[in-house]
Amino acid sequence: MSNQITYLNVVEVKQPVNVDLRAVIPTYSRMLSEGVLKEPIVVERATMVVLRGYETFEALKLLSAEKAPVLQVDSSKVKVKSLQAELKPITLETILMAGVRGPKLPYNSFNVQIDVEIPTVEVSLSELNVWRRVEGDRLRVYNDTLELLYKDWPTPLVRLRSFSSEKRSVWAKLEGANPYSNSVKDRIGWFMIMAALEDGRLGDILYEATSTNTGIAITAIANLLGRKTKLFIPKTIQKASDVFLKVLGADVVRVPVGLTVEAIEEVDAKSKAEGATHLNQFENDANLKVHLKYTANEIDEQLRSVRLKPDYIIGGLGTSGHMSAISIYFKSRYGSSVKVIGVQPAPNEVIPGIRRIETGMKWIHWTDFDQIIDVKRREAIEGVLTVARKEGLLIGLSAGAVFHAFTKVAEDEGVYVLVFPDTGYKYVEQFEEYFQSVG
Ligand code: PLP
User: Fold this and answer.
1) For residue 339, which of 121, 199, 370, 373 is within the disulfide window of CB 3.0 to 4.6 Å?
2) Which of 310, 282, 281 is nearest to 298 (CA)?
């Protein structure tokens, strides 16, 4: 009886530890590639607080599993040893409190010995409801705008007919369909704010360096939560952004840098000095997580619904959040047959939202990209025009760059997914300048 596996809802299980995302990725990848889970999570019987399998439990949450195989043990069978001498000694009591009430304990700060034989399991991810299709409300009626964001997912995946043929299908993932910033950045705005709220880190005012989209997303959600924002925008970004952000009530500061990432040190120092919360999209792992849990998984489920597996996935690199997650997910699940291509601006070119890898990105180094393609601003704009004139969709400049990269690698056969981060309406100034330059 004492070592029998039960299946609990993931929401009933309590995590006492702040697990490093980097340490979760190998478990997440292994589970995706094997399609099964081989060890149960061990929890304390009275509280359901995790005692072993911290990484596995995090990976299950990132896979949107509904259930977890669990071994419940009595606290009398558990011994705890602190590993970090500089912290207050950690006891079983401390761990249970951290799980039930928080705050969570640092990763690798203690060791747990369990005096019970732990059986192995062999449970498929489907049995844990990882692949349960998220059927939104068909009539799309939502209780508030946050539900409009996350309950309206997946964002559409649409076949681009003009570029497809009998042997080739080209699909666009339309991140512009997100409600606040009309961009992929709504996802990270939501996840970063929710993570800060859960950890009790969300202050009254949020500071962020942004090239517009993250700023809109964060301000929109901050407004719902009664918070204010102050946003730091590089001088290279279109003027219209100040107006959008002011309409939403943000305080906007233009900074004399070319790239958003060049402002983060200043924003970090200012937020510390002025008691603001700096979510920092460039470093915050909630960025990668939201794309592992939703964006990548959505593309997979959407393609599987039409019985396809991608050969190429092409997308732009800003923080590298969405494309790194897509690469980790697809390469884990399907191996190297899925080619992942990142798109960056050519040297000395400015394309809002994306930048060159050598300017420093975090998550891109956690995975493999098959190719990185340089695109000039003019080529990106011409990509926008081609898609608008063939498919009727007005996409953003970075999406235009993704389309241009597609034309560089496209062969006559295969399944191509192009991730379009936003729509074109914010970029009127750039289009106008382009039309003037071509006469
Ligand atoms: N395209 C646009 C328009 C963006 O705003 C961004 C992010 O700032 C990106 C592409 C790049 O996305 P990521 O930060 O996930 O690499």
Assistant:
1) 370
2) 310
Q: Tell me: the pLDDT tens digits for 224-253?
A: 999 999 999 999 899 999 999 999 999 999
- What is the CB-side half-sphere exposure of residue 107 using CA atoms within 13 A? 11
Could you tell me the two tokens for 205?
């005012």
Question: Which own/partner pairs from 336-339 qualify as long-range (CB within 8 Å, at least 24 positions apart)?
Answer: 336/368, 337/309, 337/311, 338/309, 338/310, 338/311, 338/312, 338/313, 339/311, 339/312, 339/313, 339/370, 339/371
In angstroms, the CA 297 to CA 59 distance is 13
Written as one letter, the residue type at 290 is V
384-401, pLDDT tens digit by residue?
Answer: 999 999 999 999 999 999
Task: Tokens for 239, please give them.
Answer: 């003027």
Give residue 439's pLDDT: 83
CA atoms within 13 A of residue 152's CA, in its CB half-sphere: 22
Query: Rounded to the nearest whole angstrom, what is the distance from the C-alpha of residue 277 to the centroid of ligand 1?
Result: 21
**HSE, side-chain direction, 13 A CA sphere, residue 69:** 20
Q: Is residue 37 a contact partner of residue 53, using CB atoms and an 8 Å limit?
A: no
Do the beta carbons of residue 187 and residue 421 sit within 8 Å?
A: no
Ligand 1 touching residue 149 (CB < 6 A): no
Q: What's the pLDDT score for residue 231?
A: 97
Mean pLDDT of the chain: 95
For residue 223, how far is its CA from the centre of ligand 1 (angstroms)?
Answer: 22
Q: Work out whether the CA dihedral 9, 13, 17, 18 comes out positive or negative.
A: positive
Instruction: Tell which one of 287, 319, 384, 419 to mutate to probe ligand 1, the residue whose CB is within 8 A of the most ligand atoms.
Output: 319
3-state secondary structure of 198: helix
Contacts of 291 (CB under 8 A, 6+ apart): 187, 188, 321, 322, 324, 325, 326
Residue 149 tokens read as 């964001």
Is pTM, for the whole model, over 0.90? yes
* Closest to 397 (Cα-Cα) out of 342, 356, 351, 436: 351
Q: Which residues contact 437 (CB under 8 A, 6 or more apart)?
A: none
Q: What is the mean pLDDT of residues 361-386?
A: 98
Q: What is the pLDDT of residues 192-204, one digit of tens each?
A: 999 999 988 999 9
